[in-house]
Write a structure and sequence with these properties.
Blueprint (H helix, E strand, L loop, with lengths): L3 H26 L2 H22 L7 H15 L9 H23 L6
Helix pairs in contact: 1-2, 1-3, 2-3, 2-4, 3-4
Length: 113
């Protein structure tokens, strides 16, 4: 069981790792779209895992997982060609979907006798 401080720290750290996944997949396959798909799937899986360990994190885990990616992509983007916001919103939706799936799985865990 994770505490709120642990979940916040791990979410932000994993968000940075998620950006590395986006960059690695996107540059290896030479497609930013496939990099965003990989990032969305990564965030979905990580959000499920975090919220299963701390069900009360369902409301903030998705935002904290996405925060580093949004800061990096928007903060360091070219003003002439901004990042595709549809892909960033898809990552937020995937992270929150994972958080709600994780909360549902945490609630349905069999209780020890």
């Amino acid at each position: 069981m994770l505490t709120h401080k642990d979940t916040i720290g791990y979410s932000l750290g994993t968000g940075v790792v998620g950006f590395m996944v986006f960059f690695a997949v996107g540059s290896h396959l030479k497609s930013a779209t496939l990099g965003m798909v990989a990032l969305a799937l990564f965030l979905l899986a990580i959000a499920v895992w975090f919220v299963r360990l701390n069900p009360k994190a369902v409301w903030y885990a998705g935002a904290l997982l996405n925060l580093p990616t949004w800061i990096i992509l928007i903060g360091f983007s070219d003003p002439v060609q901004p990042p595709d916001l549809r892909a960033l919103v898809a990552c937020v939706v995937a992270a929150y979907a994972g958080a709600f799936i994780g909360a549902r799985l945490a609630r349905s865990k069999p209780q020890p006798n």
